[in-house]
Write a structure and sequence with these properties.
The structure is a single chain. About 25% of the residues lie in helices and about 40% in strands. By secondary structure, the chain is of the alpha+beta class. It is elongated. The longest helix has 20 residues.
């Protein structure tokens, strides 16, 4: 390791310590940021809002579009009625991480129409104040109640399934749970919602079907976007 690189490596803990901030204090400061945002919004104070959002601010919406700072502020000021947004929560399962002058807030929330989301807000401490640099929301996959199935039932689904286009899916049993495996991809856990229907983490629905002899013959896979595919058992 070159001397200058070694020196920088040794100094890194000191730099981190020097830039370290108290999590509780930052949580209070970000709560105050939210209160200031609500006040500026109610007062139609464009300059106040511009002080709270970084110039490079971007809002990536769960519905798939992006707003910059100007658009965000213009739309806030154009709203006929203003309802205070709730203060940020840092209690589990929400998380707050600090990296010197950067704070990352990860949280669960909902869109205006009630869609459950995972959210991320990034703040930068600049010119003596916190400014929001990024807000991003991603829709959460629908939650489905899980049921417990007898291992003997799960074993009836094991095997190789052919989608008809050369795609082979192997349904295996690992640590007491069904896992779908495709060549070149990590296994995907299948969580049972009934004795025939399972869901993966993408929200796709796997429904297994049996023949007259009660043997599993195929499954139908329904993706979140409505597309469907069928795979036939071949072993």
């Amino acid at each position: 390791m070159k001397p200058i690189v070694r020196l920088l490596w040794l100094l890194m803990p000191l730099v981190t310590l020097a830039g370290e901030r108290d999590r509780a204090q930052v949580g209070e400061e970000l709560t105050a940021w939210a209160q200031a945002r609500n006040l500026a919004w109610r007062d139609r104070d464009r300059a106040g809002l511009e002080r709270l959002y970084a110039e490079e601010f971007a809002f990536i919406h769960a519905f798939g579009y992006r707003d910059d700072r100007t658009t965000q502020i213009n739309e806030m000021l154009a709203m006929g009625t203003v309802s205070d947004l709730p203060p940020p929560s840092f209690a589990p399962p929400n998380e707050l991480y600090l990296y010197g002058d950067v704070a990352v807030h990860r949280f669960v929330g909902y869109t205006a129409r009630g869609t459950a989301t995972f959210g991320t807000a990034i703040y930068v401490h600049r010119d003596g104040r916190w400014r929001m640099a990024l807000q991003q929301h991603t829709e959460r996959a629908p939650e489905h109640p899980a049921v417990q199935l007898d291992p003997a039932v799960l074993e009836t689904y094991l095997g190789r399934y052919d989608r008809g286009d050369g795609t082979i899916t192997v349904i295996a049993l690992e640590n007491g749970a069904l896992v779908a495996r495709h060549a070149g991809f990590p296994g995907r856990l299948l969580t049972p919602a009934s004795d025939t229907t399972f869901y993966d983490k993408l929200g796709s629905e796997w429904t297994f079907h049996r023949g007259p002899d009660a043997r599993v013959t195929h499954y139908r896979l329904r993706f979140r976007d409505g597309r469907e595919a069928q795979s036939t058992r071949v072993d």
